[in-house]
Amino acid sequence: MELLFVRSINVSDKNKDAILSSKLAHDFYLSAHGSYYINLNAEAEKLQQASVERILDGVEALAKVQGRSLIFHPGYYLKSSMSDAYSSVRNNLSLLPYRGVDYRLETTGKGTQFGTIEELVALCKEISSCKLCIDFAHVHARNNGSLRSYADFAGILQFVSDELGRAALDDLHIHMGGIEYGVKGERNHLPLQESDFNYVACLQALKDFDVKGCVICEGPKVEHDALLLKRTYEKF
């Protein structure tokens, strides 16, 4: 399960014991999606620092309930070149102390956002506390519907394996869901069966590459689609 820290942190001293008790009783993988207000390439240094603090606040809250991964979008290109944005994001990520929670860098769905699969894999190679979160729907939308066939999904997993090793596939965090998009990328999430996202091919690739870790379903019918993914995967 994934907690939503996207607009505010919803773990408090009042509810943390109940969350932890439920997690231990049912033995599930617990992560959190970090703040939407993170930009490690912001033009003002104080805004970059505020983003670092939001990440650390999320890690602190997640650690209270024994969560494993904080997922977040690293930032935006703004007026920077891609290489300058990469340097800014890398430098800020290198400041983050490891506190028992993995920093999961999520692939992004718009061309204005920093976070291609290539950029994030490169960062994970450089910074040991950072790991990958592949949002396949975002990759699909960012490139105007690029993930059509089994080979498209398999190509991503092979790239991750080649660059980060088998260990990355043995502990991979994944987001999946339907998505609406245009030439500029992501617009909004959709129910899986109302989108063109090829979730069957995606799941088949995960099965064939023996990927381990966690799949989080996103969208307006999250419970329905999570069960759809689970039952589809179990048929392979």
Describe the structure.
- By secondary structure, the chain is an alpha/beta fold.
- The chain starts with a strand and ends with a helix.
- It has two domains: 106 residues, Alpha-Beta Barrel (TIM Barrel); 127 residues, Divalent-metal-dependent TIM barrel enzymes (TIM Barrel, Alpha-Beta Barrel).
- 44% of the residues lie in helices and 19% in strands.
Number of domains: 2
- Report the mean per-residue pLDDT as an integer: 97
What is the CATH fold-level name of the largest domain?
Answer: TIM Barrel
Instruction: Indicate the proportion of strand residues.
Output: 15-25%
User: What is the β-strand count?
Assistant: 11
Task: Let me know the CATH homologous superfamily of the largest domain.
Answer: Divalent-metal-dependent TIM barrel enzymes
User: N-to-C SSE series?
Assistant: EHEHEEHEEHEHHHEEEHEH
Sheet with the most strands: spatial strand order: 1-2-3-5-7-8-11
Q: Please tally the helical runs, counting DSSP H or I stretches of 4 or more residues.
A: 9
CATH architecture of the largest domain: Alpha-Beta Barrel
- End-to-end Cα distance, whole Å, is 23 Å
Largest sheet properties: 7 strands, parallel
Helicity level: 40-55%
Could you name the CATH class of the largest domain? Alpha Beta
- Rg to the nearest angstrom? 17 Å
Q: Structural class of the secondary structure composition?
A: alpha/beta
Overall form:
globular
Domain Xylose isomerase-like TIM barrel: 3-222
Protein name: TIM barrel protein
Organism: Geomesophilobacter sediminis
Pfam family, one: AP_endonuc_2
